[in-house]
Amino acid sequence: MSKRLVVTVVIAFICLMAGALVLTITGGDGRADATEPTQAVTQGSDVYIVKDYNGKVAVFREGETTPVSTTEKSVLDLPQRDREDLTAGVEVTGEEKLRKLIEDYCS
After folding, report:
1. CA–CA distance, 40 with 88 (Å, rounded to integer)
2. Which DSSP letter does residue 63 get?
């Protein structure tokens, strides 16, 4: 296979994994159940920490030591500044901001 095809397949796989991560965190369709409006407000304000976990970009809930999800994106493939940020941990509030941040790292 050509190098370009391999790179395209790898990028598509990473994006697919990022999408799966978002679906896992949001519970599937991303819509709140109309019978539980309080839960929808609470979920939107969850605090997550995105950081390096065994060399991969991973998502943690605030205060937890086990990741909610781990992507296939190697931290070594990121720019130096992003690697430093992930070593310290990047705090993000809400699932929408989390999804955007994961897309940024994995694209």
Report:
1. 29
2. T
Is residue 35, in this structure, part of any structural domain at all?
A: no
pLDDT at 89: 95
Residue 23 tokens, joined: 């679906």
Residue with tokens 């941990």: 89
Q: Give the integer Cα–Cα distance in Å for 75 and 52.
A: 7
User: How many structural domains is the chain composed of?
Assistant: 1
Domain of residue 58: give its range. 3-30+43-106
> Residue 63 falls within a domain, yes or no?
yes
pLDDT digit string (tens) for 23-73?
A: 566 554 444 343 343 343 345 578 999 999 999 999 999 999 999 999 999
Taking every pair of Cα atoms in the chain, the longest distance, rounded to a whole number of angstroms, is: 52
Report residue 106 as tokens: 């994995």
Whether the pTM exceeds 0.85: the reply is no
Taking the C-alpha atoms of residue 61 and residue 64, their distance in angstroms, rounded to an integer, is: 6
